[in-house]
Amino acid sequence: MEHEDILHRCFRCGYCKLPGNYVDINCPAYLSFRFETYSPGGRMWLLRAWLDEKIPASKRFAEIMFSCATCGNCVEHCAFPEFRDRLLLAFTAGKEALLDAGQAPPAVRDYLTKVQLHGNPYGKSVKKSSQWMDGLEAEPFSDQEYLFFADDVGTYDPRGQEVARSVATLLKQAGISFGVITEALNSDGNDVKAIGETPLFEELAAKNIKILNQFNVKKIITLSPHSFNALKNDYPALGAQYQVFHYTQVLAFAMGNINFSSDNEDVTVAYHDPCYLGRHNTDYESARMMLRSVPGITLVEMDRNRKNALCCGGGGGNFFTDILSGGDGSSARVRVREAVEAGAQILAAACPMCAVMLEDAVKAENLDSKIQVQEVSEIVNQRL
Amino acid sequence: MTTDLITRLEKIVGPRFVSGAAEERYLYSMDQGTMPPSEPDVVVMPANTEEVQQVVRLANELKVPIVPMGAGLVLSGLTRALRGGIILDMKRMNHIIEVNPQSRYAVIEGGAAQGMLKSYLKKHHPQLKHSMPDAPPIATLAGNICIHGSGHLSVLGGSHSDMLTGMEVVLPSGEIVRTGSCSVAGEWFGRSPLPDLSGLFLGWSGTTGIVTKLGIKLFPSYKHNDVLVFVAEDADQMPDMISKLTSTQVAEDMTPWMTPKPDWAKGFLHINIAYGAHTKKELTFKRNLLQASVKKYIDDKVAGFLPLPAPQKGRFLQIPSPDLVRFADLRKGGGFEYVGAIMAIEHFPQAYRAGLEIAEKYNVSYSLGARIIGAGHSMMFFFAYAFNRADAEDVKRASDALEATNTAALAMGGIPWKAEQPAQQQIIDQMDPETFALMGRIRSVLDPNGIMNPGNWEK
Amino acid sequence: MNSIKFDPDVCVNCETIDCLMKCQYVSFKDVAEARDEKLKINDGKDSRVLEECLTCYACQEYCPVDNNPFFLLVERQEEKGFLPAPRPIIEEQLRMMAPKGRIAKETVSGPVVDMCAFPMLTGCVRGKLFEGASTIVGTDIFCNIMWLHFAKNSTIRERVPEMIDNIMSFYLADADTNELVCFHDECYGTYTSVADAYGINVPFKPIHQFDYYNQRLDVLKDKITPINAKIVYQRPCSNRLCPQTDPVLDEIFEKIGAERVPRKYDRANALCCGGVPRAHQRDELADELVDKNINDMLSVGATYCVFNCPFCMATLGQEVAEQGLMPILVSDLVQIALGD
Ligand SMILES: Cc1cc2nc3c(=O)[nH]c(=O)nc-3n(C[C@H](O)[C@H](O)[C@H](O)COP(=O)(O)OP(=O)(O)OC[C@H]3O[C@@H](n4cnc5c(N)ncnc54)[C@H](O)[C@@H]3O)c2cc1C
Ligand code: SF4
Ligand code: SF4
Ligand code: SF4
Ligand code: SF4
């Protein structure tokens, strides 16, 4: 297994369980299950034990490994410099080893099979991939400045589609020149890679790159921070050469082009940093810049923000596999409670997965009357 | 039996929080130190006192051992299930129940973490703080107080068990008792003037009951904080220097340290002195008091304060300090353990030399240091040895060095703190037999079935 | 061992004893007393100056005939075994700053910028100002001038030639230049003033950072956006070894539109930042120096407090910022004007 050499170096001190300000548990898997085994340190030691044949490859062990939401909190807060940069790589390598050993949990297998067969985890035909644009006059990509990349959730998930439409609408409002490619693109593969299925990721990426190159794409705006991460950080190694932006990064600097209505009600908004935009790519400001430019919005911060943000629990494929779910300790539920405590009326998401995860959590917590989850462009669009 | 146990435990805390799986049995069988693994049959995570009570009653009924555990960071293997049974991971009970800013105490649950209380106070009561140990921030207050821990306010307030103001405890026989003022009055202000029953649970390594709530003293949090690093060259002068510095009654924390790394520090003895003040003027005044107290040594040019510009002090002002944790990465092998021996200050030179000798004899990577407890009333002198857990020989070397250190510490009049099971034996051998006999009588009254963390403090 | 270059007869005939009479930290009744003490120092006798000296380097500048009074004073301190700081403090710093042999041959090309022992400052070398520059850094090329503060001329004699040798053999020997731009004022002082007085051969040509900036600003004239701000300047001890660079700084400030507001403790009257007295365990004196400096800066009204020496900035920076002035290094101020 790759990175096997660092497993025994983990001291299991647990700095990685917490955010930098120690407010509360910040590893979504540990938060949900609470056994030491589900903490980053527990994973390290168990992987070592498995490789040493001290524990068998059980269903539970697979659940432990695949419950990691790849949120990067452990990487950010582990006490050992340098070593920590390899933590998530080791976890991914561990998952890869489990996949190779045929030990993936059924939900993971299903997820990967669907992606393998259909190019997306919804098992939908790519023919349906233009559905999300219904009612939106989006131009097919030709020579516009940007390609807008809507990813799986934006393309196939009903709520994700709303978000994608909203973002595209706002991009138009802001005068951004963009087009879309339908019917051909596959999943960006970010979460497939995080789950440890690197060959499939490479296959998906290669197909996407081929199409993007055919269209002569130079600049890409992604809907999802997950796509942003894959396209920006992983595609170049496979020969891609695009300038990649998350939509908040383009819009943050185009807010001046937007006219707001004069009778907006005052509202308090807390912004939830998505892991793949924040910790993984250190952009904590673009979405906040957007929100700050909207009249009537007061931005409040949750105790856990920026580097310390608590993941919604949807990363690492968990959005689809649901291994983390369950209990009032699920991180999405803890997160919405935190937002209410911070005095927010709206919890702003900048990722379609976060939006779905957090909305479900608001329902599960019966907090509908106190807080509403909205994606950033939706908040803006409602105030035009 | 185990299946029955698990099913019944699941009824108490819910199936999500019980596990008899190989993964949990493996991981909870050991800690980060050198003690050999010892597996529990099951790990349970209660959510409240009532659940703890029910688990204890069940353990009595089935005569199954039960081991309370906080973060399991004690390093000396005290949360291993020496006779199997249940490990009670307390960390779901992590609420901060009450803060009384006027009488300066907090009441927290038995699994609340140091870091969480720190963060809570910073947000809700920025004028208050508690004494943090340098243990990783997930360490629990209960685990730390139960072992007589010490930390960043220990010069000011003594050991952390001295800062305890009362407890709620589930006894080994299942009753819930309260100690301290909360057993009589509504407030948790202190342990006097009552017969002090808290002592029944302090220093017993989880063999007398399970702490489900506790009260802890809080102290003023200062706007201005500083640390001085005093450097000396002669260990024989350290006890007097410590006395002089503590005599000013200004320091919150004093931690001598002697390490061979970085190279420049080797052979020198340092004392970090942390203090704070509400105003800059007051801070300067306190600094002057500290400096004046050791003027003789400065004038003799044998010791002095390191000139550290403000940006370089940041590292020394971090609470908890991650430096000790990082010591575990010294051999790129994720391991260290230390003997912390509580002893009189005058043994400092002896302890220092013994540490150097042992480190040389066993060829281990070492870090020596101490934390002063009270106004120079005693100290916790630590001898830390790093090891590579992937290298059995290296682990053995560290383990041998630790054993030799326990022996040396006892010989010089120190008492190993949070002693490993073998070190407990060494302490018992040296203990007044009547004292040990009394411990046994108390335990048999509290725990007629002998279920609480058996294997500890036994002959 | 080379002795310090100095001529006792010049002092015997000196009428003003400026070196001591102008000293801001040791006081004398009159010239006669100062002369008395100076001659004691020269003759290798005990003098209270050896103990009271703050090691501010200023007398090096005050002596009108460059008779190296300060270097000689340090020589005498060491000969007499006087320790300006406690032994362990000196000893630990000697070890911290010792050459570690962690140096490897590297191809560098001009301008080669010597960052002394401070890797955290290499980020300052950027933009148009330093276009094409190579940096060299580390304790193996540390200028070692700090030992003047600790009565350790012996260390200077031992280590400086080794550093010079390292600079040559690891970097400059095969480079396209024989010039070394000293980012740190102290390095320049070492390779000019100290080397000259101690008889140490310097095979390369040290260039002071100010001379470098001044010349670059002429080249980049079109790129300058004047700062139009008032600044106060904290002149460091090391600049006493190269007072000729102070007017160059004026030219720089003028070119970038920074107004060096006159303050009491500037130029020849510059006051120690307070860093060294702390090492000497004279914290109360250091506090006083900090206060005097800050109050003086505040009294004239400025936006920036400009530092030449990174150590002064570490000592005073936080306090300066708390008082509402922006602490900044000369190079960074120039970078602002150049838009980098
Ligand atoms: C890097 C590092 C630095 C450290 N620095 C310090 C320091 O500065 N000061 C210091 O004091 N310690 C220090 N420690 C030691 C130790 O980690 C701490 O004392 C820590 O607070 C112990 O808490 P825990 O939750 O990990 O306790 P655990 O290890 O879980 O338990 C300790 C003991 O208490 C018992 N126990 C735990 N919870 C309960 C409960 N609720 N009821 C009854 N019994 C219970 C356990 O059975 C065990 O015997 C350090 C450790 C490390 C690894
Ligand atoms: S991953 Fe890092 S922070 Fe977490 S337990 Fe291991 S060493 Fe500690
Ligand atoms: S990446 Fe996030 S979920 Fe995964 S182990 Fe680290 S902190 Fe936990
Ligand atoms: S050093 Fe210079 S100023 Fe001092 S006495 Fe000699 S000649 Fe005069
Ligand atoms: S170095 Fe400074 S303090 Fe010392 S004698 Fe010279 S001028 Fe005075």
Architecture overview:
- The complex is a heterotrimer of chains A (384), B (459) and C (340).
- With 384 residues, chain A is of the alpha/beta class.
- Helices cover 42% and strands 8% of the residues of chain A.
- Chain A contains 17 helices and 8 strands.
- Chain A has helices at 28-33, 40-51, 59-66, 73-77, 87-100, 106-118, 151-156, 158-173, 190-195, 198-214, 225-234, 247-252, 286-292, 318-321, 331-341, 352-364, 376-381; strands at residues 146-149, 178-179, 219-222, 243-246, 267-271, 297-300, 346-349, 372-375.
- In chain A, the strands form 2 sheets. Chain A has a 4-stranded parallel beta sheet.
- The mean pLDDT of chain A is 95.
- Helices cover 34% and strands 23% of the residues of chain B.
- Chain B has helices at 2-13, 22-27, 49-62, 114-124, 141-146, 154-157, 238-247, 280-293, 295-299, 310-317, 323-327, 348-362, 392-411, 421-430, 433-446; strands spanning 18-19, 42-44, 66-69, 86-89, 96-100, 105-109, 128-129, 164-170, 176-180, 210-217, 219-220, 224-232, 253-258, 269-277, 303-305, 334-343, 365-373, 378-388, 415-417.
- Chain B has 15 helices and 19 strands.
- The model of chain B has no long low-confidence stretch (mean pLDDT 97).
- In chain B, helix 1 (2-13) runs antiparallel to helix 3, helix 12 runs antiparallel to helix 13 and helix 13 (392-411) runs parallel beside helix 14 (421-430).
- In chain B, strands 15-12-14-13-17-18-16-19 form an 8-stranded antiparallel beta sheet, with helices on both faces.
- In chain B, a hairpin with a 5-residue loop joins strand 8 and strand 9 (176-180).
- Chain B has 459 residues and is of the alpha+beta class.
- Chain C has 340 residues and is α/β, with parallel strands linked by helices.
- The longest helix of chain C is centred in the middle third of the chain and has 19 residues, at 153-171.
- In chain C, helix 10 packs parallel to helix 11 (246-256).
- In chain C, strands 2-1-3-4 form a 4-stranded parallel beta sheet. In chain C, strands 6-5-7-8 form a 4-stranded parallel beta sheet, sandwiched between helices.
- Chain C folds into 3 domains: 8-79, no CATH class; 88-213, 3-Layer(aba) Sandwich (Rossmann fold); 224-337, Rossmann fold (3-Layer(aba) Sandwich), CATH 3.40.50.1860.
- Chains in contact: A-B, B-C.
- The A-B interface holds A 8-15, 17-18, 21-24, 33-37, 42, 45-46, 49, 54-56, 58, 60-61, 64, 79-80, 83, 303, 326-327 and B 16-17, 19, 21-24, 26-28, 32, 43, 45, 71-73, 89, 91-92, 113-116, 118-120, 122-123, 136-138, 322, 325-326, 328-329, 332-336, 388-390.
